[in-house]
Amino acid sequence: SPQSVAKAAATHLSVQLLEVFKPNGYEGTDQNATESYQKEDRIMEEQTTKGRAEFDSLAKVQTNPEAETFSKLVEENQELRNQLEEQRRLVIDLSADRDEKQREIDRLKFFIERIENDRKPLENELEESERKRTVCKQVIAKYLRLLQELHNKEKKAMIANQSVRLGQLIYKRIGSQFKHVWEDGDELIQLKSQLEEIIKEKEGLEKIRRSKKSRRIIKEAINPNNSLDKEAVDTLFDFSNSIELSRSLSKIEETEEKEFLTLKISMKQKEETRLRERLELIKKEKIVLSQEMKRQNDELNSTLCGKKSQEKFKILNDQYLILSLLGKGGYSEVYKGYDLENCREVALK
């Protein structure tokens, strides 16, 4: 009957659409798919032609409603065939796109495998370089520790020698508190003593020169008749305790004695200048020595370099080697360190 033919055609189209919408089940090339589709079209065309012939033969005895129904089914069949053809073209395009993407995937996989093969030697080389870098850091830290220990010993020996020469800081009770007080060394005490002696000798020479000058004033004040005027008498009494009135000197002797005193005072003045310059230099050395003594005392009580520290030369953050204390304030400590990564000296607060 026409209904059975239309039903068979619709069932066939549904099966074809289900196969179209299952791309994962498709295997083969685009050419094979096209040939398969053409074969199915021919079979469907033959079935449709046969169904139309049967319908024409039966149309004469069938009623008009059945003919209209079959005509609608034929139109729907044609529409489904058009949709099927469109879906087939879409499947062909998708298949071509899928093949292109598959080739791109294969190419990328090849590059990935190549990169992986190149990565393994690089990783081994990186591990070897990392191992060598660690060994180098350990060796550098070891020799820096030894060098710093030698440097500390040299500083302690220098301070011991300079303490005898320049002095040292001692704790002394001042009132109710104990404070650091500087005690002068042998050289500083001797230098101050020499300076005091030079100053005393120079003052003595100045007094003698002034006394010689007063003697001349007295001689000039005495007139030939052995009489003195009032001013001369006052002058005489002012200097009578230090001058011998009975002695008379010639002008030549006075000149020679004056030159001798002037020369001697000049020599003492130069000696005093030299001693003062030497004393200033020693005072500067004393300041440096006192600062170093204070720094060493602070270092003994510091957090990272002191007696209570667990490790003497500690490495912070696996990079910074602590060597010594540079200074200490009210809130923090500043250390001299070495950057093992960049190989440079740094200050660490």
From TrEMBL:
Keywords, alphabetical: ATP-binding, Coiled coil, Kinase, Nucleotide-binding, Serine/threonine-protein kinase, Transferase
Q: Which GO terms describe its biological process?
A: chromosome segregation; intracellular signal transduction
Q: Where does ATP bind?
A: 349
GO CC, sorted alphabetically, is: nucleus
Respond yes or no to whether keyword Coiled coil is given for this record. yes
Q: Recorded GO terms, molecular function?
A: ATP binding; protein serine/threonine kinase activity
Annotated coiled-coil positions are 67-132, 188-215, 265-299
Source domain of life is Eukaryota
Give me the ranges of the annotated region Disordered.
24-45
Q: Entry's Gene3D superfamilies?
A: Phosphorylase Kinase, domain 1 (3.30.200.20)
Q: Please identify the protein, giving its name as recorded.
A: Protein kinase domain-containing protein
- Which taxonomic lineage does the organism of this UniProt entry have? Eukaryota, Sar, Alveolata, Ciliophora, Intramacronucleata
